[in-house]
Amino acid sequence: MRPPTIRFLGGVREIGGNKILIEDGPDRVLFDFGPSFSPRIEAYYVDYLQPRSTSLAKDLLEFDLIPRVSGLYAREALADGDLKYVAPEIHGIFVSHAHADHAGHLGIVDPEIPVHVGEGTRTLLEAIGTSTRMKYGDHPWRVFRDREPVRVGGIEVVPYPVDHSIPFAYGFLVRTSEGTIAYTGDFRHHGPRAADTHAFFEAVARERVDGLIIEGTRAGPDPRHNLSEEGVRSEVDGVLAREPNLALACTYPRDVDRLTTLHAAAADAERSLVVSTRTAHLLAQVSPKFPTGTVPVPGTSEHLRVYARKKRVSYLWERPYLEDALSAEEVRAAGRKYVLALDLAHFAELIDLRPPRESPFIHSMSEPFSEDDVDDKVMHNWLDHFGVRFHQMHASGHASGPELLALLRTAGARTVYPVHTEHPEAFAPAGPSVRSPELNTPYPIGASTP
Fold first, then answer.
1. What order of strands is seen across the sheet that includes strand 338-341?
2. pLDDT > 80? residue 449
3. Can you tell me whether residue 202 is helix, strand or coil?
4. 144/284 same-domain check
5. Residue 149 near residue 140, CB atoms below 8 Å
6. DSSP one-letter string for 44-100
7. What pairing do the DSSP bridges indicate for beta strands 150-152 and 141-144?
8. How far apart are CA 408 and CA 414, in angstroms?
9. Residues 115, 34: contact at Cβ < 8 Å?
C-alpha cells in the first residue's frame, strides 16, 4: 500500500485559499476550502462580473481558480462543464475557522460530504449565511469538541483551539498510519486567547510530528504597524478622551474581540457603540458561546445601540434589531454620545451623518498591502471630503515573522510546509526542514518524509 500523503490544492505562495488533502489508503480528508486573495482571481472576476450562480464550480474551473478534483463538487455546481460529476471521493472536510478564505467555497462541495466544524464556528457560519449572500450549502455537519479525536476511516484528527481574529479558530493534529501531521490554520499569540495557541504548539512538540503545515501571512516584508489587543484599547481610549465629536470606527465585522474592545472603550468614555444590524445579529448569535457578560448583546447590554440605515426593504432577521435603532439624524444630533462602527460599503451614510470636521475615524483593520490599494484611495477620498481625521490602530490576526520562526524552533517538526503566504522563502532561517510545497504534488508522511 502506498504511504499516506499530503497534497496542497491551494494556499501555495498566496494569502488564503488553503485546501490541504491528506490521503491514507482509501481515506481522503480535506482541510479548509475557500477562495484565496490571489490577484489571479481578479484577472477574470471583479466587481459585478462574477461566476454564475447556476454553475459556480464550472466557471471557476474554467480559469483553474479551484482544484480539478474528482468526487468533490456538487452536481449542480459543475453543471455541464468538462469535469463530470462523480459521487463523493472525499470523506470529510475539516474547517479551521469561519473566515471566507477558509470556508467560502463550501457551497460548491457535494452535499453528501460531511463537514467537520467546532460548535462556535457552526454558529458563526449560520449567522453569516442568514445575514449575507454567503452560502455554505447543505451538508451533514459534524460538530467536534476541543481536543477530542475524530476518526474518518483510518485518519484521526484532533482539533485544538488557537487564537485568531475571529473566534473559534482551530489547529489540528492529523494522525495517519505512518505518522502525524500538524496544521495550524490561521493563528496569532498576542490576542486574548494566546494561551490556546501556546497549548497547541506544546501539543505539536509532544507529538513529534512528521510535518508541520504552518500559515505565514506576515512572513517576509511586513510594513504594517500592528498592536496587541490591549494596545488597540489604549489608543482608542486616548482618541475618545481627546475628541468631543462623533467617533467613527471601521473594523472587520466578525472580529468579536475588536467589537468587544470598542464597546468597552465606548462605555468607559460614557458613549455607546453603534453597530449595523448585521453586526448586531452576529453578536446576538455568538454571545451565548462566551462566558456571560463578556460579549455585548443587542437589546440587553448597556452602551450598545443599533444603527438604522435608510433602506427600501428590511430583511426578517433585521427587524428585531430595528425596533429601537438610531437614525442618522439621531446620531448626528448627539454625536458625542456615540462611536459608530461604519463599514466602507456604508460610507454613503456620511452624507446624512455629516460629522463635524476633525471628527476621529478609527481604522482598526490591516493597512493596505500597497499604496495602490483601490479601497484605501476611495476611503481617504471620503474622509478628506468630510474633513474626518484618520487614526490607524490594529491588532493582527496573524503571528509576525520572528514569532513564526521562534515557534518552529519549539515545534521540532521533521518537515515544515509554509502555506497562506506570499513569502515561503522567509522561513529559510528555520533550516533544511523547510520545504516550500508545490501545487498538487503528493508529499509522503512518515518514514519516507524528507
1. 304-306, 272-275, 338-341, 247-251, 360-364, 389-392
2. no
3. helix
4. no
5. no
6. T-BTTB---TTSHHHHHHTTT-S---TT-B-HHHHTTSSS--------EEE---S-H
7. unpaired
8. 10
9. no
Element (H, E) at 201: helix 194-207
- Strands 169-175, 180-183: parallel, antiparallel or unpaired by DSSP? antiparallel
The mean pLDDT of 149-160, rounded to a whole number, is: 98
Considering the domain architecture, whether residues 295 and 341 belong to the same structural domain is answered as yes
Q: Is 301:263 a contact under the CB 8 Å cutoff? A: yes
75, 85 contact by CB (below 8 A): yes
Which grid cell sits at 22?
491528506
C-alpha cell, 340: 459608530
CA–CA dist 76, 57 (Å, integer): 9
List the CATH number of the domain containing 241. Answer: 3.40.50.10710
Within a domain: 72: yes
User: How do residues 94-105 score in pLDDT, each as one tens digit?
Assistant: 999 999 999 999
* 351, three cell numbers: 452624507
Higher pLDDT residue, 176 or 373?
Answer: 176
User: Is the pLDDT at 450 greater than 50, yes or no?
Assistant: no
> Looking at the predicted structure, is the pLDDT value of residue 399 above 90?
yes
- pLDDT band of residue 371 (cuts 50, 70, 90) is very low
Q: What is the pTM of this model?
A: 0.95
